[in-house]
Amino acid sequence: MTMAWSYLAYAAGSIALTVWVGRTLKKHGAVLFSGGQEGELALALSDLLAMGFYLFHIGFALLILRYGSRASDLPGAIETVSTKLGLVLLVLAASHFIHVAIFSRLRLKQPATSPLITPTASRVEMPLSAEIVS
After folding, report:
1. What gap in Å lies between CA 24 and CA 103, rounded to an integer?
2. In sequence order, what are the residues at sequence separation of 6 or more whose Cβ sits closer than 8 angstroms to the Cβ of residue 46?
3. 130 CB-contact burial (10 Å; exposed 0-12 / middle 13-18 / buried 19+)
4. pLDDT for 40-90, tens place per residue?
5. 134: Cβ–Cβ under 8 A, 6 or more apart, which residues?
6. What stretches of 1-134 show up as alpha helix (H) in DSSP?
7. pLDDT at residue 30 above 80?
8. How much is the pLDDT for 71?
9. What is the pLDDT of residue 115?
10. pTM of the predicted protein model
11. DSSP character at residue 64
């Protein structure tokens, strides 16, 4: 019975951690992609990355459920669950840093906004001919 409870605790903990990190990445990743403006493409890309993140990490967490020692008492079950959750956290951290690097790289590849574009208007202001000469 101890193993059943430890499996449930591990599954609940690893899925909760995965969802927490995934939601954070999705929320802040969309802001990074859009540059502070709401953009359909940024939201769609963030959703796709989040879906892949969830599929990978929940699948990984469920796969390692069967590996490790089988505990026969409560201290052994706690050690097994904490070891597995620690492994899930390390993989989540590595994936988090990879996602942040992807977000940053994609953000850097976006074209910079021209200083001639005013933030309130979407038209481009052309310099006067006197400004070009001087």
Report:
1. 13
2. 26, 29, 30, 33
3. exposed
4. 777 777 788 888 888 888 888 888 888 777 777 888 888 888 888 899 889
5. none
6. 2-34, 40-63, 74-109, 129-133
7. no
8. 76
9. 44
10. 0.61
11. G
| Contacts within 8 Å (CB) and 24+ apart, 97-100 | 99/25, 99/29, 99/49, 99/53, 100/25
SS3 (DSSP) at 124 = strand
Candidates 134, 102, 131, 133; CA nearest to 115 is 131
Report which secondary-structure segment, H or E, holds 116. none
Q: How confident is the model over 107-124, as pLDDT tens digits?
A: 666 555 534 344 444 444
Structural tokens at position 64: 């390692």
Residue 66, H or E segment: none
Report the distance separating Cα 67 and Cα 84, nearest Å: 9
CB 2 within 8 A of CB 73: yes
Token output for 13? 């903990």
Classified as helix, coil or strand, 65 is helix
CA angle 112, 114, 118 (to 5 degrees): 125
The domain limits of the chain are 2-133
